[in-house]
């Protein structure tokens, strides 16, 4: 089972903390954040991962032997020659390391338990992992039918409780195979196309969900994981 990890973001909101560091390798108590994500993927049964990198890919390349050894996964690193966006990065990764079966696409700046990945692997349909929040304003949220069919992706800023996109997707080997490589977004281009086709379902996950996209959320994650270690 294979996963494609989106590691290309510039992390502009974190720049005051990370300076010139690629946010997926930000230090969490002596380990790159990406190592924690890969550890959960391995627990879920993933054996191979393709890292789709752009901004400061050199830092990922330098750390790759250590990350691969610690994760126990077979890792590939694909570096964009020009920015492709989250969607284009996935399409490029699929062409360079084609999947043989159902695969996952994972945002590298969020931490979820292995159960989230197991749910996406086990789903019968193309899916995204949905997380229920008491306040969804900071995230893109979802409108779904009772059977889980996703009907609409909503922009950030919709306040109140509801489901958000957890940044984990499960697709069949053929779902995106015919799409041409081009700069595009998962959230604004690829997922809306799957919704129009009526083939994207949400699987609700109730475990931990931690996003490190802001200085405040990164610091909260560090504090939480420090307490777990102690």
Count of individual beta strands: 13
Overall residue-averaged pLDDT value: 91
By DSSP (H or I, 4+ residues per run), the number of helices equals 7
Task: Write down the overall geometry.
Answer: globular
Main beta-sheet annotation: 7 strands, mixed
Unreliable stretches: none
In sequence order, what are the helices and strands, one letter per element?
EHEEHEHEHEEHEEEEHEEH
Any idea of the CATH topology? Spore Coat Polysaccharide Biosynthesis Protein SpsA, Chain A
Topology diagram in text:
Layout: E1 2-7, H1 15-18, E2 27-28, E3 31-32, H2 33-43, E4 48-53, H3 57-71, E5 74-79, H4 85-96, E6 103-107, E7 110-112, H5 114-122, E8 126-133, E9 141-144, E10 150-154, E11 162-171, H6 186-197, E12 200-205, E13 209-211, H7 215-229
Parallel strand pairs: 1-4, 1-6, 4-5, 8-12
Antiparallel strand pairs: 2-3, 6-11, 7-13, 8-11, 9-10
Please name the defining characteristics of this protein.
230 residues; alpha/beta; Spore Coat Polysaccharide Biosynthesis Protein SpsA, Chain A; 7-stranded mixed sheet
Q: Describe it for me?
A:
The chain has 230 residues and is α/β, with parallel strands linked by helices. It has helices at residues 15-18, 33-43, 57-71, 85-96, 114-122, 186-197, 215-229; strands at residues 2-7, 27-28, 31-32, 48-53, 74-79, 103-107, 110-112, 126-133, 141-144, 150-154, 162-171, 200-205, 209-211. The protein has a single domain (2-229), classed as Alpha-Beta Complex (Spore Coat Polysaccharide Biosynthesis Protein SpsA, Chain A). Helix 4 (85-96) crosses helix 6 (186-197).
